[in-house]
């Protein structure tokens, strides 16, 4: 065991990934916005409660009911400052500094950063005086302290939260400046001044590009392929990759990485320079990529492979590695798994607009700055062009922007006016609540007799892909698909018309209108060129009053992304931890990145939610090294789901105490395996699928937690030594989820059941039609045996 422990410690991963972090709230004398945070997405029996505070309201939406008024939509307050308006920024800076300096949460944060209580008020008083005197906003100081950061907030930012970040950063830059040291030390102790300077320099990151010396040794050629959905913007990038001597594809989803991996190995991507393919295979209409599948000659992606085009390609994602050939010269990966140390001839970075995503944008920022390739193709939206231009101005790389237009027009159709009977074959109905999706599925099936596939974020990628296949297959009987904004990326869907059930989305804090980018990304999925007989896509709304919003947003140009996201890594966290008090928590370390770090205006550290995970991990600070706590925090763990808290605590404690974590022992005593075996019993004994929301939710979490273990196993295979058990259990969970999906939304009347004659889960079980009362008795008898059988079967599984 001593040797095992030593190996586990030695194999601890040093990957610099990202984190989640909760928003910090400021109070004020005239609060702009106060809201209650919901910790889970569980359904509640209570009706939404509206909180009126300063003219702003907040509610948690459930399944929509059109028999009563829908809850009011809350427009988030915004700073509404422009980088071109220096006087306006200076006015805001000077008028609000006094109120900011009085916030209790600010005093608490400064104390956690190591400033003694007796020095906080004198320091802030001097800072306010200097600001009001204009010394921090003259021509030189304006740029020195990057005041234009006040104008770079996003629609997701609350003014008081964002301005708190900017003010605190300016405070530290001013207090750490050698020119102000004498004045600062006249009101606070020299030791406090030293602590401020030490933390400021530890967190400082003005030139992120310098962290990638290998990429700086050559002048790269960057080619941006930008355009709306269904414009074929990835066509030329994929053909260039297939022709490159060495290259890598990096995308946001494991399914996209898998498709590229598969098609390159099979020779289904036609290399650049090939004008005619002797096989003459038709284009791959099932590709999830935005390629010109019909008009291009030859098409980039073919349905049949040509052995002459086949290239050995390996795949690496957060959860799985596929090595076809150790000497393979091509790779396909998720963006977080890109290697900055390897040298490539060509790299393709997909969905570049995600560079501003608060949860994962750090990986795209690192890819743009650090990928060591002679030629880099960036594919995505027009919104990313200005921010990429700003980043490349630092690296001095060559930039070429190629713009593409949509291959088929997108038109706004007449609202279906709350009438489910107007839902048609080929429609995709979009909602942003899991409960609403199932409610809509049942309502549409009842009103139209058509079956609905479903897609939403908590479903594993494999299940989402399977549901997409059902919808695309004209003989499956699934003529409509109901989904969330998960349809906007990574799925190939033959959508004729997008129907927005709502144009507002609950973001965890407030119900707010969709952004321009979100609306266009979703609506643009309609009418993929070459896949439908219609030569245009349609978008409409469920409610007539939402139609004007859709028309106005689709007519607007894209808004440029405000900043590229940075993510704290192990090295910066260690530096900051050394500059903080010894008792500093994990959350304080990340707060220092966000509030103290000095970056250029087009960068910002993510402020995604880490509160719950950090609080749990800090309870094990005596047992876990900082690197271990950061690794756990960056892992894809459902920290905010209260149903997983006990499991996550068990995982952390087991690792901390034993440095060895087995899957079977980890899940012993949980309800996840019991739920799986119960569903498998139903699959073999019941005449038709039967399930409920609780069962499906348990299976979703089970799959998520298995993915978490696989993620950890790739980073520390000695400690997490049973990945083969995960490989065995995950397909079982996915089959059970397919069964549960159909059971939770099956037709509720005998007539409707008789209409449904499609096997529920292909190659999994046969379907027995529900026709007689005897079938009901058989079902009840089978259900009575489940509890006993489950107990009997749990023993050998956990042995």
How would you explain this protein's 3D organization?
The chain has 799 residues and is α/β, with parallel strands linked by helices. The protein has four domains: 86-203 and 567-605, no CATH class; 210-403, 3-Layer(aba) Sandwich (Rossmann fold), CATH 3.40.50; 410-555, 3-Layer(aba) Sandwich (Rossmann fold), CATH 3.40.50.300; 638-798, no CATH class. It has 28 helices and 18 strands. It has an eight-stranded mixed sheet with strand order 4-3-5-2-6-7-1-8, sandwiched between helices. A six-stranded parallel sheet has the order 9-16-13-10-12-11, with helices on both faces. The protein has a two-stranded antiparallel sheet with strand order 14-15. Helix 15 links the parallel strand 11 and strand 12 (478-483). The protein is globular and about 80 Å long.
List the helices and strands and how they pair.
Blueprint: H1 2-10, H2 86-101, H3 104-112, H4 117-132, H5 139-144, H6 159-175, H7 181-184, H8 190-203, H9 213-216, E1 221-226, H10 235-243, E2 247-251, H11 254-266, E3 313-316, E4 321-322, E5 330-334, E6 344-349, H12 361-370, E7 373-380, H13 385-395, E8 398-403, E9 410-412, E10 427-430, H14 434-448, E11 451-455, H15 461-472, E12 478-483, E13 497-500, E14 504-506, E15 511-513, H16 516-523, E16 537-541, H17 547-555, E17 564-566, H18 570-579, H19 586-596, E18 603-605, H20 611-618, H21 626-634, H22 645-658, H23 663-667, H24 672-685, H25 693-715, H26 723-744, H27 750-755, H28 773-798
Parallel strand pairs: 1-7, 1-8, 2-5, 2-6, 3-5, 6-7, 9-16, 10-12, 10-13, 11-12, 13-16, 17-18
Antiparallel strand pairs: 3-4, 14-15
InterPro entries: DEXQc_SUV3 (IPR055206), Helicase_C-like (IPR001650), P-loop_NTPase (IPR027417), RNA-DNA_Helicase (IPR050699), SUV3_C (IPR022192)
GO molecular function, one term: ATP binding
Domain Helicase C-terminal: 415-569
């Amino acid at each position: 065991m001593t040797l095992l422990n030593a190996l586990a410690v030695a194999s601890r991963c040093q990957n610099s990934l990202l984190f989640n972090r909760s928003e910090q709230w400021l109070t004020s004398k005239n609060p702009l916005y106060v809201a209650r945070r919901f910790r889970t997405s569980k359904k509640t029996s209570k009706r939404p409660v509206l909180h009126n505070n300063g003219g702003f309201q907040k509610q948690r939406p459930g399944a929509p009911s059109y028999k009563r008024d829908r809850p009011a939509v809350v427009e988030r307050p915004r700073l509404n400052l422009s980088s071109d308006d220096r006087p306006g920024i200076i006015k805001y800076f000077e008028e609000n500094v006094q109120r900011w300096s009085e916030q209790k949460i600010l005093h608490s944060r400064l104390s956690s950063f190591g400033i003694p209580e007796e020095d906080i008020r004198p320091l802030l008083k001097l800072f306010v005086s200097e600001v009001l005197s204009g010394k921090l906003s003259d021509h030189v100081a304006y740029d020195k302290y990057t005041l234009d950061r006040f104008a770079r907030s996003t629609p997701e930012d609350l003014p008081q939260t964002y301005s708190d970040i900017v003010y605190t950063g300016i405070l530290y830059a001013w207090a750490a400046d050698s020119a102000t040291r004498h004045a600062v030390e006249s009101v606070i102790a020299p030791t406090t001044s030293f602590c401020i300077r030490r933390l400021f320099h530890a967190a400082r990151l003005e030139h992120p590009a310098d962290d990638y010396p290998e990429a700086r040794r050559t002048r790269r050629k960057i080619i941006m392929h930008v355009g709306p959905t269904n414009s074929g913007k990835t066509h030329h990038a994929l053909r260039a990759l297939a022709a490159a001597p060495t290259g890598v594809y990096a995308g946001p989803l494991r399914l996209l990485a898998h498709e590229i991996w598969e098609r390159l190995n099979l020779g289904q991507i036609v290399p650049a320079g090939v004008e005619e393919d002797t096989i003459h295979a038709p284009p791959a209409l099932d590709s999830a990529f935005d390629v010109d599948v019909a008009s291009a000659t030859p098409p980039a992606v073919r349905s049949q492979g040509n052995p002459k085009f086949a290239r050995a390609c390996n795949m690496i994602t957060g959860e799985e590695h596929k090595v076809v050939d150790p000497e393979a010269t091509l790779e396909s990966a998720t963006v977080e798994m890109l290697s900055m140390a390897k040298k490539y001839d060509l790299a393709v970075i997909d969905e570049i607009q995600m560079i501003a995503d608060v949860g994962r944008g750090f990986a795209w920022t690192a890819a743009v700055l650090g990928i060591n390739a002679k030629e880099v193709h960036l594919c995505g939206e027009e919104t990313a062009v200005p921010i990429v231009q700003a980043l490349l101005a630092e690296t001095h790389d060559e930039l070429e922007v190629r713009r593409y237009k949509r291959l088929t027009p997108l038109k706004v159709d007449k609202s279906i006016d709350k009438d489910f009977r107007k839902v048609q074959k080929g429609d995709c109905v979009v909602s942003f609540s899991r409960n609403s999706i199932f409610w809509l599925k049942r309502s549409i099936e009842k009103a139209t007799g058509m079956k609905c596939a479903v897609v939403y974020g908590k479903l594993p990628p494999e299940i989402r892909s399977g549901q997409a296949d059902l919808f695309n297959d004209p003989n499956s009987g699934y003529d409509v698909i109901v989904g969330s904004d998960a349809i906007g990326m990574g799925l190939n869907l033959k959508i004729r018309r997008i129907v927005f059930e709502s144009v507002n989305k609950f973001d965890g804090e407030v119900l707010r209108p969709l952004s321009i980018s979100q609306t266009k990304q979703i609506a643009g999925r309609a009418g993929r060129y070459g896949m439908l007989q219609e030569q245009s896509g349609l978008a409409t709304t469920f409610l007539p009053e939402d139609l004007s919003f859709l028309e106005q947003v689709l007519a607007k140009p894209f808004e440029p992304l405000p900043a590229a996201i940075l993510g704290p890594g192990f090295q910066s966290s260690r530096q900051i931890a050394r500059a903080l008090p010894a008792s500093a928590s994990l959350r304080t370390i990340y707060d220092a990145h966000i509030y103290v770090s000095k970056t250029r205006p087009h960068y910002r550290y993510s402020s995604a939610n880490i509160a719950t995970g950090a609080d749990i991990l800090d309870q094990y600070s005596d047992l876990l090294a900082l690197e271990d706590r950061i690794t756990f925090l960056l892992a894809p763990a459902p920290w905010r789901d209260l149903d997983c808290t006990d499991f996550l605590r068990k995982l952390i404690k087991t690792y901390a105490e034993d440095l060895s974590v087995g899957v079977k022992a980890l899940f012993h005593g949980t309800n996840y395996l019991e739920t799986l075996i119960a569903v498998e019993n139903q699959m073999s004994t019941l005449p038709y699928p039967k399930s409920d929301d609780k069962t499906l939710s348990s299976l979703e979490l089970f799959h998520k937690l298995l993915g978490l273990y696989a993620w950890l196993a790739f980073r520390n295979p000695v400690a997490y030594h049973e990945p083969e058990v995960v490989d065995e259990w995950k397909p079982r969970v996915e089959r059970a989820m397919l069964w549960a999906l159909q059971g939770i939304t099956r037709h509720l009347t005998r007539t409707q059941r008789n209409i449904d004659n499609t096997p529920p889960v292909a190659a999994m079980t046969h379907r027995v039609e529900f026709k007689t009362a005897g079938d009901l008795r058989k079902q009840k008898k089978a259900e009575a045996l489940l509890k006993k059988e489950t107990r009997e079967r749990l023993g050998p599984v956990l042995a």
